[in-house]
Amino acid sequence: MLFNSFSFLLLYLPAVLAGYFLLGRLGRLGGLGGRWPAAWLALASLFFYGFWDWRYLPLLLGSIICNFAAARAIGAAPGAGRKRRLVLAVAANLLLLAYYKYANFFIDSAQALGADWRDWNIVLPIGISFFTFTQIAFLVDCYHGQVREYRFIHYVLFVSYFPHLIAGPVLHHKEMMPQFADPALVRPQASHFAVGLSIFVIGLAKKILLADQLSPLVGPVFASGAQPALLEAWIGALAYTFQLYFDFSGYSDMAIGLSRLFGVKLPLNFNSPYQSADIGEFWRRWHMTLSRFLRDYLYIPLGGNRGGAKRRCRNLMLTMLLGGLWHGAGWTFVVWGGMHGVYLVLHQGWRRLAGARPANWRGGALTFLAVMLAWVVFRAPDLHTAGNILAALVGGNGVGLPHGLAGLAPVLAHLGLQPAFDGIRWIDFGALGVPTLAFAALLAFLAPNTQEIFFQYEPAIERIFHRVRWPAIAWQPGAVWSLGMTALFVYCLFSMNKVTEFLYFQF
Hints:
The chain is mainly alpha-helical. A two-stranded parallel sheet has the order 1-2. Helices cover about 65% and strands about 0% of the residues. The protein is built from 20 helices and 2 strands. Helix 1 (about 5-30) runs antiparallel to helix 2 (about 35-50).
């Protein structure tokens, strides 16, 4: 079940909301506080997960039960026994993740070397990376004595909470568990509904009206073995760059909006990363909770900035290579992570040589270009196709022009310029593809994001904005915004010709 489906919008979500607040009222009357609503939301989240493929529901439940028991055991163990139990629990989580996420990668590599394992085909369970990393962080914090609550039903909800289950954010217990235990949140509040629904609709529009509309420009360019021409390669690379941007930004907004309907705030996961002035800032704005996890539970334990410049560069490279592998099992993801590792190392070197300098548009343009080139490798089905596209970006496969300009051929012939255009491939980009791409670029580079627009109502846990650049568009409860969001929601519903998965659906 996806957020952008009729079954979710018209059946699942209304039923879950109604049950949550009804049980909240009954719980107050019976003196049970928020236990019933939390249990209902946990069961609804498990149903949400099982709706995709019920065969993997025992996997999620087994992971939750085993990790909860391991956390209790780690917290109760004395001295060296705590570390031993932590290592065993983390290793078990990583082995489970490795089996489902990387077994096919190793099988394919073995088959390339001559092995006959054609009957092996392991389906990646939805959200396994997110609920595994969430629980590893919980185990580590139990080891450090930072966990204060061990209520099982809240732990189940913490891990399986449906707004974050498909594509994050990676949750942290100290941010979420107190909210799930707060009895005040089970009372419906008009402000939560107004803010939550508005943010959700904006995210839905990003997904349906922008990301999905760019998809036709991406597929032909990134098809296995494709040989795109110059313009075709640039259009395809830019289209994927903004498709992924608005797909992930839309999901992040929808997750925050959905959670706000229940009175719960999620951590911020996306903050206009293409407006970054350098690559370090990009990673502080893109998939923010994953960056936080990699920093706190990988980069810092490796040594972080300690030990001099060489060790810092090594730690950056290792962190980004493993971050690339987290995104997918394939050499394209390893190379993508390596590219970003090199970017960050070069950025650190530049800062040491040039010192701190004020941000400018040149740094932002260079950062965007570097990120786009890395996205080409990330999206390509294999390294050979990625190489073809990167070569095409500098004219390696010739020039391609829009099909609409083919009508100029007689004029060119009359002027004696036709030979210069011989061999040019005429490409059909569709009527709205390129205009949608241009509009998406303007929004990504210049427009305020939802956190800025809704800054007065603190939509996420972090409050990073204290004013909006354009006060006229700051969200306010009222007729104008209400009518605008209603119209946008209705337009999205009529544009939902088919249900499309999020690009982070199976990471």
